[in-house]
Protein 1
Amino acid sequence: MLVRKVPGFVPASPWGLRLPQKFVFLLFLSGLVTLCFGALFLLPNSSRLKRLFLAPRTQQPSLEAVAQVASHPRARGQESPPNPAPAAPAPGEDDPGSQASSRRRKGWLRRTHPTGHREEATATRGGGATALRPQEGSVPSSFDFKAFRSRLRHPVLGTRADGSKEPQSLVQTQREKIKEMMQFAWQSYKRYAMGKNELRPLTRDGYEGNMFGGLSGATVIDSLDTLYLMELKEEFQEAKAWVEESFHLNVSGEASLFEVNIRYIGGLLSAFYLTGEEVFRIKAIKLGEKLLPAFDTPTGIPKGVVNFKSGSNRSWGWAMAGSSSILAEFGSLHLEFLHLTQLSGNQVFAEKVRNIRKVLREIDKPFGLYPNFLSPVSGNWMQHHVSVGGLGDSFYEYLIKSWLMSAKTDMEAKDMYYEALEAIETHLVNVSPGGLTYIAEWRGGILDHKMGHLACFSGGMIALGAEDAKEEKRAHYRELAAQITKTCHESYARSDTKLGPEAFWFNSGREAVATQTSESYYILRPEVVESYMYLWRQTHDPIYREWGWEVVMALEKYCRTEAGFSGIQDVYSKVPNHDNKQQTFFLAETLKYLYLLFSEDDMLSLEDWVFNTEAHPLPVNHSDSSGRGGG
Ligand code: DMJ
């Protein structure tokens, strides 16, 4: 039907309303809608409704997602940031906010724009600023990095006195050489094995091994802080970008609790404390959470192996037929786990290691000694084998370092350390007929007159602890540290390559040498140069730099190959038989300790840092603010 337009005629609506009535009705309706919607936000108990309406925008991301977003705030748009976001101070900088430091940071800690892992990238999509907030009670949204840095007593990399224009000194040249070795080790790894756990330099490929539960990139994580320290800036950026883009935690294999803790957690924690980059903090915490099922035992003493998929745990088959946990393994978690609690606000990490301490404090100890095998079920020692080398070593190291890391407040750790050291001295320390001091191994009262390469870290440990011993013991411990370190040097000096064997003996008229070919190998281990570094810092006796340089020369001569560094199978042969492995600890520890040996004492000052057993620096918990702006 055609409705003709007739002047003055206003058609009625289908509901029979005329225009003014319709206007009033619409006004009323819109007022009602506004009121109802506003109530969702204003009424006190509206959170459930809010969630209903707003779920797609405020859904909490996983910690992985938080890491991704925090590290790549602009990844979605793929634009280059005009200026790098304020992050960590570059080495030597102390004011992260200053214009100059922001300019300097451009080349040093510039942001990268990776595509990211698919699952992780998906999780970040749609996340606005609120999506940066991690899950409640798990990870605090921030850590006051600036306040932490202001409490340090020294600039992280020292005052760098020899950054001056003065002619290159011998020590600078030596340090540069070590830096070149690190660069070569890293570049070889990057070229042939990037993302794999280790480089095999002879076959020029990568190796995953079976210790890390399917995690990759052990060499990357272990190298981060060494690259930072040596100011290998481009290489550090490569390593960081790999962590951001390719270091995935959604793996499902069986892992060694100890190895993942000292290498991965330790490496990530150090990288965070050195740079303030959130990606390292978040990944460390998330990985720490994956280790927790190892502690599900009747005593709370963790088992050595954790299954990332099922969350089950087990002891190593070789540890008293699968019945025991190993002292050095469950005794070397304290430093990292306290930092995980500090950075996450989650007490569970600290509770786990405090419980280990409690079990060890209360258990009877034969002659005050700590045997290496303990049942995580009954809490009893399973065998009376005591050693400061393999199976026992870093337990003692973590006692003295817990004391130091607590800014000398953890009295329990201090007491346990000095009591243990006294028992070791009484029952294990010996002097050979040739006058060499060594620490033997103890089997229920019978001594094996042998020292493992691993036990050679103890010279450094005893030196480090000497200053806080009872007054009348200090000089004695300094001397003991020096004598043990001298013995370990002898094990190097008495070989044809000037590198030390895996184990050396003191019997049958032979001293500080391996007695079987099966113990004659050298796998790029750090313990001897680690002790040189501590002894150098304590005494400044040039002998330690001389000895350190002998090691550098020997590494160059016998361990350097065309595609990286390799261990050798016989230190008594001048024709090297390479083992085709560039161990991750060579980059984390051996080269780092050598570099520190030829650096100023305030580079990673021992007043501010303790090194975990993989040489990853963790900060001392200075609670006061009497620091000198040690950015
Ligand atoms: C490293 O992984 C650690 O130092 C550990 O405590 C023992 N051994 C190796 C290096 O030799």
Protein 2
Amino acid sequence: MSVTDRCNFRCPYCMPRERFGEGFSFLERKEILTFEEILRLVRVFAGLGVAKVRLTGGEPLLRRDLPLLVAELVLVPGLRDLALTTNGSLLGSLAQPLKRAGLGRLTVSLDSLDPDRFQASSDSAVPLAQVLEGLEAARSAGFQGTKLNCVLRRGFNEADILPLAGFARDQGLTLRFIEFMDVGTRNGWRLDSVVPAAEVAAIVARQWPMERFRKADPGCVAQHWRYLDGGGELGLIASVTEPFCSGCDRARLSADGALYTCLFAPEGLDLKTFMRSGGSDPDLAALVAARWKRRDDRYSERRSEATRDLPRAEMYRLGG
Ligand code: SAM
């Protein structure tokens, strides 16, 4: 569930400044779902069997009064897990109110522990130290099981693999390396800028031997590894080299209330207009269920099939 389309970072692989700069028109306030509308949707989804909600964005901590929303969401019957993904820059002041409101888990995105590379990666005025303080604030507020997300790009932050893994081990955090994904060819994606999960596993295992294990959760998209010395776990999200479309059970709601059954789907189903024009909850549930039943998104698998047997030069051309 995206609670805002705005972000205070301009990560080149996600919201590149050339595209999301001064002239970009973000959603107007009236276009964004209100807290009441978000709650209504979450209740409907929970009624259809959804047990886990992740708040995201844009940068979700930019949404005013977010702890008030969290406090209501945790009361939704059937919802067992409420998590949030953030760039961590505002956790210093918000970790405690979010914990008090009942937020269950946090994932913090962190692409580098090198201050200069962090700056280049986030393309913002926020210093690395502010995110590290945010992580500390989360710990002091009592969050446990916090995850770190790192998007690796070839030639940019491979040097961060071991420092980040070491940091996560020391801090008791679970680090996940995510393969750089093509989000609609808007982010300069090229296949040769993807660092394959298998390569990351080999680099980390050379330093800290680890073994792969399976988690019971069928909708889980990460590969799980555990360090043999008891130093915790590592996750690898091989969205490009080993796409998992068939195992994906995620529905995505944009800040303006459109339902997407794939991160890469070109169009969503406009639930906001349906709600604002007086649609009832049972009709809303039927609409969502019908859309869910006919989903057949296989964006990443198709992309992978298209590139698998090509000579490398051709693969790079396809990657733009
Ligand atoms: N602003 C929040 C944050 O930074 O975590 C939440 C939104 S952000 C889009 C959610 C996650 O998506 C982040 O961990 C980010 O690194 C990841 N992400 C964004 N673009 C990506 C891409 N092209 N490939 C892989 N991961 C990406």
